[in-house]
Specification:
This protein is 77% helix and 3% strand. Helix 7 crosses helix 8. The protein has a two-stranded antiparallel sheet. The two termini are 24 Å apart. It has 11 helices and 2 strands; from the N terminus they run ααββααααααααα. A hairpin with a 6-residue loop joins strand 1 and strand 2. The protein is an all-alpha fold.
């Protein structure tokens, strides 16, 4: 592994786990324990809805929809706990090849950093109870930071420009993220009107989005493999 890639990966891991440790050290009362457990169970389930992108070794999962919902309805520490457990499930649920420890740590750290930045930057909107603008901004930040960190690593490993890697690889993920972000906005907004449980009843739509996108992306993955 090139030195620059190793340094970037290690730095990302240190930053991500420092953020995570800072949140976990604080006292936890779980004031919304039932809501947290509901989101956690759904996020773990969504972690099994994995899609491989063209030209990428890792996968994306539908659990990011629950990350965005959790950002709007749960404290940061509970959201990070949910995200870490979901990422572990994503890494170890029926992988084609067993993930290396450094890959798992980087995945956890990049997700933690992306969520923490999205949470902090949208804090003003959260206090103003502007749920739709909050989720739109949080979705954009999460996607940009998470995909950016992964693209930089791939670029350093392949000795390619990071922007080129992002355009060629993560552009495939954007429609998936966009549809998931819209679903997160609809569910969170509906929960303010009809209640939390009826809003979560719309989550089967998440599986439909996954199934449709998976069928659409598989031929593109096959083309890249043939090339």
């Amino acid at each position: 592994m090139p030195l620059k890639a190793r340094l970037f990966i290690n730095t990302t891991i240190v930053v991500g786990f420092t953020i995570l440790a800072g949140c976990l050290i604080a006292d936890h009362e779980f004031p919304q324990g039932q809501r947290f457990l509901q989101c956690l169970v759904l996020a773990l389930l969504a972690s099994t809805f994995k899609i491989k992108l063209p030209g990428m070794a890792n996968t994306i999962a539908a659990n990011f929809v629950l990350f965005l919902i959790a950002l709007a309805v749960l404290p940061l520490d509970e959201t990070l706990i949910l995200a870490v457990l979901s990422c572990l499930a994503q890494c170890f649920w029926r992988p084609k090849t067993r993930p290396k420890l450094i890959q798992v740590l980087f995945n956890l750290a990049s997700t933690t950093t992306s969520i923490a930045l999205a949470f902090e930057i949208t804090s003003g909107l959260r206090k103003a109870d502007a749920v739709v603008p909050e989720l739109i901004v949080a979705s954009a930040i999460f996607f940009a930071v998470n995909s950016g960190l992964v693209s930089v690593v791939v670029a350093l490993l392949r000795n390619q420009p990071a922007l080129e890697v992002w355009r060629n690889c993560h552009r495939w993920a954007f429609p998936y993220y966009l549809s998931g972000a819209i679903l997160a906005v609809v569910i969170t907004s509906s929960s303010r009107i009809s209640g939390w449980v009826p809003a979560l009843a719309m989550l089967p739509v998440m599986y439909m989005i996954y199934a449709c996108y998976d069928q659409w992306i598989k031929p593109r993955v096959a083309e890249v493999v043939r090339d």
